[in-house]
Amino acid sequence: MGDHSMSEKASSQTGPNHIGIIMDGNGRWAQSQGLSRIKGHQQGVETCRRIIEACQALDVHYLTLYAFSAENWNRPETEVNGLMELLELFLMKETGTLKKKRVRLHAIGRIEDLPARPRAALKKAIEATKEFDEWHLILALNYSARNEVVDATQAIATLAANGALDPGSIDWDTISSHLYTGGLPDPDLIVRTSGETRLSNFLLMQSAYAEFYFTATCWPDFTKAHLEEAIRSYHNRERRFGRTGEQLDVETSLTY
Ligand code: IPE
Ligand code: IPE
Ligand code: MG
Question: For the whole model, what pTM was predicted?
Fold first, then answer.
């Protein structure tokens, strides 16, 4: 009972299969070097490339990157425009690489409200990679977990009002399949860079049982080694899903 090696076995030695990252600290990174905020975002895009590649090397099949929150529209117009340009450029430049690496692109958020150019580039990249099924890159764009709940509720309520759905039959599966992430697995690990320890409206429903990892490193400085450190930390956690550590030990000894 409570045997350390047993509970280590019961911990998440495999995976994470899905990592969500709140890519934060581009602005502070830039300011600390006397650069403009947009230079920080440019450097942040380089980190995205590095981390997409690292995920494949580390056998992480799903990577969700929080790239632009619904609240980020409140930033100065020049910064918002710069971010939208960077998004378009990233999509145009990276689609070839994603195809070569057989990574399927998804987007979550109110995509229809993005400016026309990045929206078109996004649509094209999603279309170009839709045949792949092993590796997944999910971009959270104009994303807000609360908006996601609103949108799912409206969709479900419409079905119910049209008689296509019995309100009494609505369960978590119904709701989960109407979230932007319908069909995607929940994140196992959520990482936030730059020292902030909040979720800022990111995947609130989906991360109900995720592990969290916070690091002071700003996103432009985040490397594969930092990601490996986050994964190591994840492996040392015991994911109990409401059960006791002893129950997990018994189950583990049955499976080993
Ligand atoms: C994260 O970096 C990128 C986006 C939110 C788009 P920030 O721009 O939030 O960087 P800080 O938090 O100001 O340092
Ligand atoms: C969260 O970062 C959004 C993204 C990483 C895209 P913010 O920097 O916008 O979050 P707050 O404002 O510090 O909560
Ligand atoms: Mg920030």
Answer: 0.94
